[in-house]
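#lab-general

N.A. 3:47 PM
ok so I finally got the sequence cleaned up, no stray characters, all 263 residues accounted for. can someone with queue access submit it? mine expired

B.Y. 3:52 PM
send it over

N.A. 3:53 PM
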Amino acid sequence: MEGFIYVVNPPEIPRVAFGSCMERITLPISGPGLSSFMRKIQGEVRDFPGPFEYVHSKEALDKKYPSAYGYSSFASKLPRLPPTDISRFPPIGAYNVEPKKKIKQAARPFNIGTKRVQIKKLVTPCPADYAADQPRASLNICSAFGSRRIIWPAVAVICTPVNIAKCSKCNKTPVGDYFHQFQLNLDMCRRCMNKQLKMLKRCSTDLFYRARMRTELSLYRPVRYCDFFHDHQGTTAAIQHMPTSTLRYKIKTENYIYMFKKR
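B.Y. 4:20 PM
back already:
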């Protein structure tokens, strides 16, 4: 056959891809420079690893796959019943057939003939009952470098020949203690003050009105007329009908009570 060329192995066509067809491996293969992403895409670096090529120590498997029920590392992870504890059923010879002797408890301390003393409960409060976050109550004291020491009474006493106090709400003369506003010279009896405080506690009260009334009522101070310990009889002079010692004891007691009432 003329013109026919017999070729046993055809010539290989060379690849011109600028090195893209070269076989490459992920470096490094092991060590601290191998990241998790590199380890994931690296695959098996050996060509044909056999079954005996994989070496795993028993300690490594126990640490990686611990089992609280005593199963091996290759056991199934399906839920199972816990293994029976054989130690709960000791053999026949392991039982102690001798009964334990009862310990006689002493009815009295040190086996004497006296009766037990009942421990009394503490009446005093414990340290946690005290309010440590609140400021300590103190009296209003006016001192002049030790030469004069005056304890201001908690309830101010207004001393005039005639009681001219009139309540600014009900226009009546207050009976007993009442409240006085020293800036505007206004008086308010206890009944009207309690009404104002009840009105502030209502849910229907406006917030702006409640805030304004609280500011105004905070300026009132408890006062009383001086007729509880002396009598003027319409003059500037006065006849004292209460002993001075009783008056001092009354002022000290009220100061102590009002000191905790403010808190």
